[in-house]
Amino acid sequence: MPLTLSGSGPRLVALLLAASGLLQAWGGKGHRIISGTMLRTLPPPLKAWYAGREDFLRDHASDPDAWRNHDRKEGPRHFLDAEIYGGADKVPYAIAEAIQQVGSAEFIANGQVTWIIQDRWKDLVEAFQAGDPEKIVFATATLGHYVGDAHVPLHSTKNHDGEETGQKGVHSRWESGLVERYIVEAELEVRPAKLDGEVLKSPWRWLRDSYALVPKLLADDRAADRTTPPEARGVRRGGAYWAIFWDSQGATVKQQLQRSAEDLGDLVLTAWVRAGKPVPKS
Ligand SMILES: [Zn+2]
Prior knowledge:
The chain has helices spanning 10-20, 27-39, 44-47, 54-59, 63-67, 95-102, 104-109, 113-130, 133-150, 170-182, 202-212, 214-224, 239-274. By secondary structure, the chain is mainly alpha-helical. Mean pLDDT is 91; it is low at 1-22. Residues 24-25, 64-65, 78, 145, 149 line the site of zinc ion.
């Protein structure tokens, strides 16, 4: 079902503007890594579509973040605040049901990442059906961005940047700070892609998994921050903070990057099979 959002009025505009100011998930490095690592999961006949276009795939992995600057509907496509529905296990699959539950303004303001993944996956199926390599790679980069966002724990909660717990900046400390400092792409391990029998429901499962990671992530940030003098917290963190935070959250950061690449690989494989396993013309 296509995601169409309509609505007007000053309150809605204010909500959209507030939402579009969100930090970008995974930073540029994380999104590039997810796209590149995903390619390792694909079987050779499918991987052939991406041959010679690996850099394009990586270079466009963060495009949807840039779209937020000129499309007010774009910001909330990158997250979903599960609390509005009563928790991550209660988010409806159907847009109509979600709107009925919370009203259209709240539906828009609190994010649509699960539904946008559905829409962008269908775009990828169409690109494979058309047999157009450029469209396929672009659709994969776009889909991969939202899949990556859905695996960032703080994209599943209203407390997305620690505003409610006095931990402002935790969003970027986790998804960019740790990734930039410690993640080595070659060290990530991914399994081969497999068909996803519930392809249109999987984003909800990822959201539930992400949401379950939030309490420990916040607790670990607070514990690491005991090394930061209060007067320095608005500025930057020192080496001790980063070492402790990586020690407690590093495995989770790696796991979420690996799962992003694996789950994206499953969606790509499933789209290709749905399109009839086309092979590129040589
Ligand atoms: Zn994003």
